[in-house]
From TrEMBL, chains A, B:
<dbReference type="InterPro" id="IPR010982">
    <property type="entry name" value="Lambda_DNA-bd_dom_sf"/>
</dbReference>
<dbReference type="GO" id="GO:0000976">
    <property type="term" value="F:transcription cis-regulatory region binding"/>
</dbReference>
<dbReference type="Pfam" id="PF00356">
    <property type="entry name" value="LacI"/>
</dbReference>
<keyword id="KW-0805">Transcription regulation</keyword>
<dbReference type="InterPro" id="IPR000843">
    <property type="entry name" value="HTH_LacI"/>
</dbReference>
<dbReference type="GO" id="GO:0003700">
    <property type="term" value="F:DNA-binding transcription factor activity"/>
</dbReference>
<feature type="domain" description="HTH lacI-type">
    <location>
        <begin position="6"/>
        <end position="60"/>
    </location>
</feature>
<keyword id="KW-0804">Transcription</keyword>
<protein>
    <submittedName>
        <fullName>LacI family transcriptional regulator</fullName>
    </submittedName>
</protein>
<dbReference type="Pfam" id="PF13377">
    <property type="entry name" value="Peripla_BP_3"/>
</dbReference>
<dbReference type="InterPro" id="IPR028082">
    <property type="entry name" value="Peripla_BP_I"/>
</dbReference>
<dbReference type="InterPro" id="IPR046335">
    <property type="entry name" value="LacI/GalR-like_sensor"/>
</dbReference>
<keyword id="KW-0238">DNA-binding</keyword>
Length: 351, 351
DNA sequence: CTGAAAGCGCTTACAG
DNA sequence: CTGAAAGCGCTTACAG
C-alpha cells in the first residue's frame, strides 16, 4: 500500500550523477555548478522527490525541531505564546512539537524523558504549577540541549528565561488606581506558591507604601487559581466588609470580570464606586462592560522572544554565556473600568 | 560542548551483550529472558541511556508523530481541538507537531511540502479559508500517509472527516427560538464560501419552513469573519429596520455577544424583546449577561476523535476502507438569552 | 534465548 | 566542480 518513496539515490541514478552531488545540489552547496543545480532541482520537482528529513536529521544530528511543554494548550495565554513560538520558528526553518503537562509534575517529568529521546534541538517550557525543582530538566544541560523558560520559570537553577516584570506591572497598575483617586485599594492575589503572583502582590504593596496608603490585609484576598468562581467569592467577601474598597487590582482578568459582574448586579457602580484593574488583556477585557483596564502581558511576544532566544542559543553555541533572562515591557491599557473621572483612551508603557 | 550521548552499542559493550539483545530488551521483546531485560533496563537507567528515537524512526520508517495544520493556534476553537488531539495522541504514544496556515493557501501548500519531508505518520488538517481544492494534499494519499480533516473539510475529494452536523445544529437552534415564541427570526450568517456556514444558513431556513414562518431576506445578514465588529454592524442594521426581529440565531458566539451588547445599550430587552442564540459555546457565553444560549460544538471531542481515527488508520492500514466521516453530536445549551419565558437550565442534545 | 550482519537514506571529509 | 566511501544509531530477518 505505502508506495515506496523516491530516494536521493534513485534521483542520482536517474540523472547519472552521484548521490553526493544530488545532496549538495539540493542543499544549494556553493561548489556545485548552477547548471547542475538547476538540472537536479528540476528533475526532483518532476519526480516529486522529497528529501527524507528523518534520514537527514539522523545523519546531521540536527532535527530542526523545538519541543514545547505547556500546562495546557487551551489556556488563551499559552495558545498565544505557542502561536508566537510557531510563527518565529516557522520563519526560521524550525518546527514545534507540543506537549501538555496538565500542570502535573509527574507528567512533566515523563515528557522530559520523552524529549530526551526525540533529539529536539531545544526546548521551551512553562513549568507546571506543581513543579518545585527542575532536576528533571538538568539532563538537557548535560546533553547540550538549550532550554528557555517563560512565565513560570525555575528559581532553583540558572536558566534562560523570558518574563515580564510582574512587580513593576503590579506597581504601575496599583499606582494608576491611586492616581485615579482611590484610597482603599484591594488586591485579588494569585497562588502565593507561584513567584509571579507573589511579585504582583509585592508590587501592589510597594505602590501603596510609596503613596503612604495603609496596607489593609482585609482587602487582600487570596485565591488558588484565579478563576471566575473564586472571583465571585472574593466579590462577595468585599461586599461583607463594613466598607467597600474604592479600587481593586486583580491578579488576572477573570477575577476582575467576575468582580465587575457581581458588583453590577448589586448595583455597585464601576468605576465610580469601585475602580477595577485586571491583568493579562484577555479578549474579554475589551468586551466586558465597562471595558476592563488591564496589563498587556505580551503573550505573543513572549512566544516570539522565547523562540528567538532558543534558536540563537541552538545556532551560536556561545560557550561564554551561562544563561540569559529577557524581561519584556508590559503596558497598562486604560479603559473604562478605572475611569473615576472620565478619561480619553490612553496607554501607559512600563519603562 | 555537546557531551556525546551514550549509544545502544556503548550499553552493549558495557554489559557484554550484543546490540541486538539490548535493542530487544529495551523494546520488551518476548524472546528475551526476564533476567536479561532487568539487567539491561537497570543499567540503562544507571547510565542515563536514552534511545535515539530519530535513529529508531529512521530505521523503522515510523516516527510516531502526527502533523497538525490549523489556521491559527490562538483561536479558542482550534486550541481546544489541538488540546484534544495532543491528549489522545500522548496517551497512545504519539506526539504532535503543529503548523499554522494563518488562513493562507500559499502557506498551507508550503506546510504540506514540509510535512512530506518530515515523515509524519499521519496528518490532521483544518483547511485555510482560502483553500478551494486539495490538490496539495493528494500526495499524502500516494505516500500512504493517512489524513483526517476537521471542521473545514474538503468537498472535492474523498477524505476522512470529523464534523458536526451544522445543518441540524442550526435547525435545532432556530427551532428553539420558534418554540420560545419567536416569529421574526434573523440570522447572522458566516462566510458563504465556507460549507459549514452555508449549512448553518440552510438549517435556519429549513426550521423556518418547517414551522411555516416566512423567510425574510432583510433579516439574514451576511458577514465575512463573524467577528465582534461585524456583529456590531449587524446589530445596527437590525435597529434600522422598520421592525426589529424578535429572535436572532447567530452563526457564532462573538457576533451574538456583540448583538447583546449593542441592543442592551439601546435599551432593547434581551431576551424579552429579542431572543439570541449563538454557536460554539465559547467561554464568554457563560459570562456575558444575559448568559448566551448556544451550541456546544464539541471542539475538544473533535480533536480526540480526529486523533483516534487517524491513529487507527495509521495502525490498521485497512485497505478496504476508502474513507470515513464521523459526525459528532452537538448540544443546545439553553441559557438566559433565549428565555422569553423564564426556563430552568436545561440541555437538549441533538439526536 | 542471543548474536552477527545488513541496511535504513542521507551527508561530508577526503580525494581528485 | 564531482565522486567514492564511510558512517550516523538503531532494528530485524536470519541463523544457531
Amino acid at each position: 500500500m505505502k508506495s515506496s518513496r523516491i530516494t536521493l539515490k534513485d534521483l542520482a541514478k536517474d540523472l547519472n550523477l552521484s548521490p553526493s552531488t544530488i545532496s549538495r545540489a539540493l542543499g544549494n552547496h556553493p561548489a556545485i555548478s548552477d547548471f547542475t543545480k538547476k538540472r537536479v532541482q528540476n528533475r526532483a520537482e518532476e519526480l516529486g522527490f522529497r528529501l527524507n528529513s528523518i534520514a537527514s536529521s539522523f545523519r546531521k544530528k540536527k532535527t530542526d525541531s523545538i519541543g514545547i511543554i505547556v500546562p495546557r494548550i487551551d489556556i488563551h495565554f499559552h495558545s498565544l505564546v505557542i502561536s508566537g513560538i510557531e510563527e518565529y520558528a516557522y520563519n526560521n526553518g524550525y518546527h514545534v512539537t507540543i506537549f501538555q503537562s496538565k500542570d502535573l509534575l509527574k507528567r512533566e517529568k515523563e515528557i522530559a524523558k520523552i524529549l530526551q529521546t526525540k533529539m529536539v534541538d531545544g526546548i521551551i517550557i512553562c513549568l507546571s504549577i506543581e513543579t518545585k525543582n527542575c532536576d528533571h530538566f538538568k539532563k538537557f544541560d548535560k546533553l547540550g540541549v538549550p532550554m528557555v523558560f517563560y512565565d513560570r520559570v525555575p528559581t532553583d537553577f540558572e536558566a534562560n528565561k523570558i518574563v515580564i516584570n510582574d512587580f513593576e506591572s503590579a506597581y504601575t497598575a496599583t499606582e494608576h488606581l491611586i492616581n485615579a483617586g482611590c484610597k482603599r485599594i484591594g488586591h485579588i492575589a494569585g497562588n502565593q506558591t507561584t513567584d509571579i503572583f507573589k511579585a504582583r502582590l509585592e508590587g501592589y504593596k510597594a505602590a501603596l507604601k510609596k503613596h503612604k496608603l495603609p496596607i489593609d490585609s482585609s482587602l487582600i484576598l487570596p485565591t488558588n487559581n484565579l478563576n471566575y468562581e473564586e472571583g465571585v467569592k472574593c466579590a462577595q467577601k468585599y461586599m461583607e466588609l463594613p466598607e467597600l474598597p474604592d479600587g481593586i487590582f486583580c491578579a488576572n482578568d477573570y477575577t476582575a470580570v467576575s468582580i465587575i459582574q457581581v458588583f453590577r448586579k448589586a448595583e455597585i457602580k464601576i468605576p465610580r464606586q469601585v475602580a477595577i484593574v485586571g491583568f493579562s488583556n484577555y479578549p474579554i477585557s475589551k468586551i466586558i462592560e465597562p471595558n476592563l483596564t488591564t496589563i498587556n502581558d505580551r503573550a505573543f511576544q513572549m512566544g516570539e522572544a522565547s523562540a528567538k532566544l532558543l534558536i540563537r542559543q541552538i545556532e551560536e553555541k556561545n560557550d561564554f554565556i551561562e544563561s540569559e533572562t529577557i524581561t519584556l515591557k508590559t503596558e497598562l491599557i486604560i479603559r473604562e473600568s478605572s475611569a473615576k473621572v472620565p478619561v480619553t483612551k490612553k496607554v501607559v508603557s512600563q519603562k
